């Protein structure tokens, strides 16, 4: 079952730290927006691209909340 988290990546430092956290996950971690664009959460270029998005969602095949909790937004 895919897990979904709404996140914020405001700075380049946020992006670099988020990518480092995502890299610890075995399996796919994807960033997506409301329009359905998807990029790898383990890609620096992909994550930088998300700074143009209003809302960012992180999808993973397993529970990665503890790794990414500092970027998670509670809706």
Gist?
The protein has 75 residues and is an alpha+beta fold.
CATH topology: Histidine-containing Protein, Chain: A
How far the N terminus sits from the C terminus, by CA atoms, comes to 20 Å
The mean pLDDT is: 94
Query: What is the H/E order?
Result: EHEEHEH
> What topology, given as strand order, has the largest sheet?
1-4-2-3
Second CATH tier, the architecture:
2-Layer Sandwich
Main pleated-sheet profile = 4 strands, antiparallel
**Domains, number:** 1
Strand content: 15-25%
User: Which percent bin holds the helix content?
Assistant: 25-40%
CATH homologous superfamily, by name? HPr-like
CATH class term: Alpha Beta
- Which oligomeric state applies? single chain
Number of helices: 3
Number of β-strand runs:
4
Explain what the structure shows:
The chain has 75 residues and is an alpha+beta fold. The protein has a single domain, classed as HPr-like (Histidine-containing Protein, Chain: A). The protein is 28% helix and 23% strand. The chain has a four-stranded antiparallel beta sheet with strand order 1-4-2-3. A hairpin with a 5-residue loop joins strand 2 and strand 3. The longest helix is centred in the first third of the chain and has 11 residues. The protein starts with a strand and ends in a 7-residue tail after the last helix. The model has no long low-confidence stretch (mean pLDDT 94).
């Amino acid at each position: 079952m895919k897990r979904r988290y709404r996140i914020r990546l405001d700075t380049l430092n946020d992006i670099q730290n988020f990518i480092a956290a995502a890299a610890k996950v075995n399996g796919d971690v994807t960033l997506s927006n409301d329009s359905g664009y998807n990029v790898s959460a383990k890609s620096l270029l992909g994550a930088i691209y998300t700074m143009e998005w209003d809302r960012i969602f992180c999808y993973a095949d397993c529970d990665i909340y503890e790794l990414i909790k500092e970027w998670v937004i509670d809706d």
